[in-house]
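Service request form, structural biology core

Requester: graduate student, group of Dr. S.
Request type: structure prediction, single chain
Budget code: on file
Notes: please return the result as structure tokens.

Sequence provided:
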Amino acid sequence: MSITEKLNNISEYLSSSKKVMGKSVIDVEKIKEMLEEVRGNLPRELEQSELIISQKESILNDASEEAEKLTAETSQHCENLIAQAQSRADEIVSQDEIVAVAEKRADEIVSQAEKTKEDTMEVVEHNKNEIMSRASAMQEESENYSSQRRKDADQYAKEVLFSLEERLSLSLAQIRKGLETMESGNKTPEEKVA
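Core staff response, request fulfilled:
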């Protein structure tokens, strides 16, 4: 049973309490027992909120690891392309009759490979930043939701406890008044004059 349901039970119990001489009679021990149940559930509700935050942090960590893995793989692939281009360029240059053309082509290949690497790295970095931004937003949203749930639960508990306190105060005042009435009714006429 949730905290809200337990607090609703307390409120219903107070509303349905027996009336004696037009006044509510409340079993204080039962109310204390019900309040202890509410207090016992508070840590569970908070643990659930913390679990949600932990899951969001796990998603953020997974997204960061995936982005780093993608960056490393892309960088390695680009470096392999550059190495292949350089190797091919070295082969072409080794042929004496086309040395000039080979050098020019090799420079173009290396330049193109460098540009491809830069373009790819920009895309990967952009994707990584976007993943991190989304994960951060999810974590912040989760923390806000958890914080709001805690505040709402605290506010509701305060309202129920203040209402209970007012009813208990009224009941105590009525009991005192009844005792005073009984004591003044039991006095002899001589005691009343004195």
